[in-house]
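Attaching the record inline, Q. Sequence:
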Amino acid sequence: MTRKTQRQPDGGFSLIDMIVTMTLIAIAAGMAIPYMRDMTDAMRLAQGAREVERELQTARLKAVTSNRVLRVRFNCPAAGQYRTVELIGTPAVPAPADDANNRCSPGVYPYPAPDADLMTLPNHDGPVRYLHPSLSFGSVTTLEFRPGGTVHANTGAAGAWPQLSTSGTAITVTKGSSTRSITVNGIGKIKLQ
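Structure, as predicted:
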């Protein structure tokens, strides 16, 4: 009795199988790239807004715990930058050196303060913070956090700044046509929206 050998089929994929598979992968990747770019932009915008919100929360907490008036200045010293600074003088009569151009300069008012003497001000200035280069501030105003936890806003008028209303003001962070807002009201409630 003779035994017949059966021929095994050749294994692997044909060239056509490979071309079809690569084409489907390329189409799927082409559709996913714009979605991933949009998702990355949204994540970057959300992260920037969270960082600004954290800076506002920290400034309020530091004002209350240190019994000092702190201001958060935006686009300071340049667009897309922000800094928490301790008020020099009083809210009604700030010292002449307490202007945005001077206080935003880390060269003039370095972080950390050169001394810890409570008699010399400022002692509670923060570092200059930076938004991602693709982000910018929309509507912003300098905010002042007082030791009682209240929040006041710069209206451009002389004298003490008025307390924000209960509806508050919005600080917006933008990326293209997308925005995220941080709402701050007069009693110190800070909410990321």
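The mean pLDDT is 87. The two ends are 85 Å apart (CA to CA).

More tomorrow.
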